[in-house]
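Note on ligand handling. Small-molecule inputs were canonicalized before submission; formal charges were left as drawn, and no protonation-state enumeration was performed. Where a ligand contained multiple stereocentres, the stereochemistry in the source SMILES was retained. For flavin-adenine dinucleotide, this procedure yielded the string shown in the input block below.
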Amino acid sequence: MFLPDFRFHQPITLQDAVGLLMQKPNAAAMAGGTDLLVEMKKGLRLHDDIVSLAKIPELKRIIEDEQNLFIGACSTHSEVMASQLVDNYAPALAEATSKIGSEQIRNTGTIGGNICTAASCCDTAPVLLAMNAAVEIARAENIRIVPLRDFFSFNKKTILEKGDLVTRIIVPKTRPGTGTCYEKFGLREAGSIAVVSVAANLNIHEAFITDACIVIGAVAPTPKISDQAVESLKGKKVHELTEDSPSLEEAGDAAVRDSIPIDDIRGGAQFRRDVLKVLTKRAILRAIKNTEIGN
Ligand SMILES: Cc1cc2nc3c(=O)[nH]c(=O)nc-3n(C[C@H](O)[C@H](O)[C@H](O)COP(=O)(O)OP(=O)(O)OC[C@H]3O[C@@H](n4cnc5c(N)ncnc54)[C@H](O)[C@@H]3O)c2cc1C
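Structure output:
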């Protein structure tokens, strides 16, 4: 497996990167290259021009305003994990990135590359969806913001068009009374991709669940918000949701009803359903606990 020939561009401004992607007929953006180069080596993709994003400083910044975190698309998973802002306001995202691949992959792969690959098993999207994140996209002179829930169109497909570059991911900050978490099941503890994953984001006020988002990963063509699990949780009293309680069982079953798992080398569809139920219940219990400890 050798990489095919291509022209390599390393712009230092966003404007130049966007310009190159628009002008060159068959160009691809490259952040860490941990997905792109593997696919090119395997002959699954062929590009005449590769536009590296590695030297554009603004794509690596993690900043905040009153309400949101703005995470530069080229922040590596290790940088996201190490960010104090992420730790303070999106701890489940730090948790999800810490579970990605190996240290080498986390030091090279980026959060933007992770969502642009749009694999249903990718680790950052479930948490970002659960937190109602949005994606900032640049093309030519224009910047637009798209909710992440509208970003994935199918497995490994996004709404990005020629010349589009993801510049930042906008993540609403967690507020008091919010508990989030990420559960991942892989075939090994380290270095394996998700067979099933679940992200939970619960809002609790006076012991009632006032708002919730449950996202299921690797059990549908894209990471998916489980509307049925969300409905089953809203308005529930927290102490109705104890281990093995009927309400918790129902939330787990609801997530399974929203899944469309496949059989593949990592697990059969029924195995995935069984694991999904367990992970959903575990994620809900942990998110409730995280609310109590102020996460
Ligand atoms: C050994 C190994 C283990 C892995 N383990 C995991 C794992 O546990 N969990 C997981 O989720 N993933 C895993 N991955 C997949 C991969 O590492 C991640 O998806 C990573 O985040 C991809 O980021 P990247 O910067 O390397 O993307 P790249 O390979 O640079 O790009 C991926 C795709 O996104 C496009 N792209 C990149 N950045 C942008 C941008 N800013 N705007 C528009 N398009 C863009 C590229 O054109 C390309 O199509 C693994 C990969 C390997 C090789």
